[in-house]
Structures are given as structure tokens and as C-alpha cells.
Amino acid sequence: MDKQTQDVLEILEQNAKATPEEISELTRIPPAEVREMIRTLEAAGVIRSYKTIVDWDLVEGPYVYAFVQLKVSLERGHGYQKLADRICKFTEVRSLRLLSGEDYDLEFMIQGKSMKDVAFFVADKIATLDQVQNTSTHFILKTYKEDGVIVEEKEEFKRLQVSP
């Protein structure tokens, strides 16, 4: 991948709303070339999607998130892929990753309406899968940074007034 393409991808990763004209100003690539480059990257599947990061806490979000880690037994001839394909089909699963290390093999983030919904999903839909040996669920209590974006505004330090 050439440097120009990498620069365009990095800009779009930071700001999916960046226009070809804005990207052109940052990279000195003509806007028409930027448009064509983006079209080509989308068609090739390099750019998979454009994303909005929502701070649901600010709008009294109706969602609970958790990370679920799985220890699995592999099915001969399929490795992790068959189980990963099955887990990916659940709409509640937001991301799924293969991990290195000894404790857990797979980790996914789940979105639910309540902690109870998440717990029942893991118990009913995931823990019952043949290859799953063990699960560990960690509820997300607060998000400080998401996909490189700080989602919490810091309050300015205010010194309390001291009375004489």
C-alpha cells in the first residue's frame, strides 16, 4: 500500500465525515483522485463501513455492554472459524476477536437492554454451544475512550473558595 492511500485511510479512520476536499487539503491529492481512491477502497473491501460513535450515557442510553471471554475446544478440521461464524450471526454481538494466551480463546463484546438480558444471552445462546468450555463475562461500567475518541469531557479543576 502506498503512502498516499495509507494517509487517506488514516484520515477517514479518524473522521469518517471528512470530505474529499478536506482530505485533499491534508494530503495534497486532488479531490477527484481522493474520490476515486475511496471508491476503489470501498469496492475492494478495504473500507468496510463508516461508523458513528454515540455516547449513550448522554442520551440515557438503553444499552448495557459486556465483554465475554470464551475457552473453547476446537472441532477437528475447522479450528476457530466455524464457532466464530456462528457467534458472529447473533445481532447482540458487536465484535469478536481471537485471542492469544492460555486463559481464553475468543472474546466478544455484547450489547443488551439490561444486565439480565446479557446474562441470559450468554447462558442460553453461548454457554450451550458444544465447543464452549468456559465463559467469563465482564460488564462495562464506563467508557472513557472508544475507537480512538475520548467520550468523556473532563471537568476543569476548580479550587474551592477558602473562608477566612
From TrEMBL:
<protein>
    <recommendedName>
        <fullName>HTH asnC-type domain-containing protein</fullName>
    </recommendedName>
</protein>
<dbReference type="Pfam" id="PF01037">
    <property type="entry name" value="AsnC_trans_reg"/>
</dbReference>
<keyword id="KW-0804">Transcription</keyword>
<dbReference type="InterPro" id="IPR050684">
    <property type="entry name" value="HTH-Siroheme_Decarb"/>
</dbReference>
<dbReference type="InterPro" id="IPR036390">
    <property type="entry name" value="WH_DNA-bd_sf"/>
</dbReference>
<dbReference type="Pfam" id="PF13412">
    <property type="entry name" value="HTH_24"/>
</dbReference>
<keyword id="KW-0805">Transcription regulation</keyword>
<feature type="domain" description="HTH asnC-type">
    <location>
        <begin position="1"/>
        <end position="81"/>
    </location>
</feature>
<dbReference type="InterPro" id="IPR019887">
    <property type="entry name" value="Tscrpt_reg_AsnC/Lrp_C"/>
</dbReference>
<dbReference type="InterPro" id="IPR000485">
    <property type="entry name" value="AsnC-type_HTH_dom"/>
</dbReference>
<dbReference type="InterPro" id="IPR036388">
    <property type="entry name" value="WH-like_DNA-bd_sf"/>
</dbReference>
<keyword id="KW-0238">DNA-binding</keyword>
<dbReference type="InterPro" id="IPR019888">
    <property type="entry name" value="Tscrpt_reg_AsnC-like"/>
</dbReference>
<dbReference type="InterPro" id="IPR011008">
    <property type="entry name" value="Dimeric_a/b-barrel"/>
</dbReference>
